[in-house]
Backbone:
């Protein structure tokens, strides 16, 4: 639900993507439509770091994002980030569209909340405090994913981290994106930011 209001737009430098898979043939059109709209809206942002969070991800060493992840982990295959990726791996592939137009040399794969905290506090040394969250499906994986909104909402109480969403952030089962009415009816608490979108409020609020 929307419990607060703000006119202060955040300076967002981090992007967190939740379960942005390459669609199966039967659902290809509607998911790619969501990705295309997402790409068009993200073009105006200059993200310093991107986190791709997808369990059951196929581990491919010729994947640029996987190479970036290994680099962040100092090429240590026993690093928790790598270990957790291997434990949760499967046959899924990240969206081809996002891989081509959004992912860059600063994109890493992360599946656990504690690994995301390590990335923010240790590797990034708290330099990125504001993260835009996108993905699907609204009120399913967006909320209950290992890096979903419920777990992210617990972080601001202990870390200098803030999470945001927009009207193009989350895809719904209706094949539309979550907009103000959906945030108003949500179980999570949000602050409505004028001419921007929404801030996820701490679970302590």
Residues:
């Amino acid at each position: 639900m929307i419990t607060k209001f703000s006119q202060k737009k955040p300076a967002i430098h981090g992007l967190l993507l939740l379960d942005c898979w390459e669609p199966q043939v039967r659902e290809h059109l509607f998911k790619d439509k969501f990705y295309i709209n997402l790409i068009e809206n993200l073009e105006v942002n200059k993200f310093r770091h991107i986190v791709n969070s997808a369990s059951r991800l196929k581990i491919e060493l010729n994947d640029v994002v996987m190479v970036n992840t290994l680099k962040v982990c100092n090429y240590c295959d026993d690093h928790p980030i790598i270990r957790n990726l291997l434990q949760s791996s499967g046959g899924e592939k990240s969206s081809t569209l996002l891989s081509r137009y959004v992912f860059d040399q600063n994109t890493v794969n992360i599946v656990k909340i504690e690994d995301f905290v390590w990335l923010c506090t240790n590797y990034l040394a708290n330099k990125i405090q504001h993260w835009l969250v996108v993905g699907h499906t609204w009120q399913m994986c967006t909320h209950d994913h290992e890096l979903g909104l419920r777990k992210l909402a617990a972080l601001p109480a202990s870390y200098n981290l803030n999470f945001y969403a927009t009207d193009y952030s989350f895809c719904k089962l209706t094949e539309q994106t979550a907009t103000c009415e959906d945030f108003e009816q949500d179980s999570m608490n949000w602050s409505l930011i004028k001419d921007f979108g929404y801030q996820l409020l701490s679970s302590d609020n």
Summary: The chain has a mean pLDDT of 92. The longest strand covers residues 130-136. The longest helix spans residues 28-42.
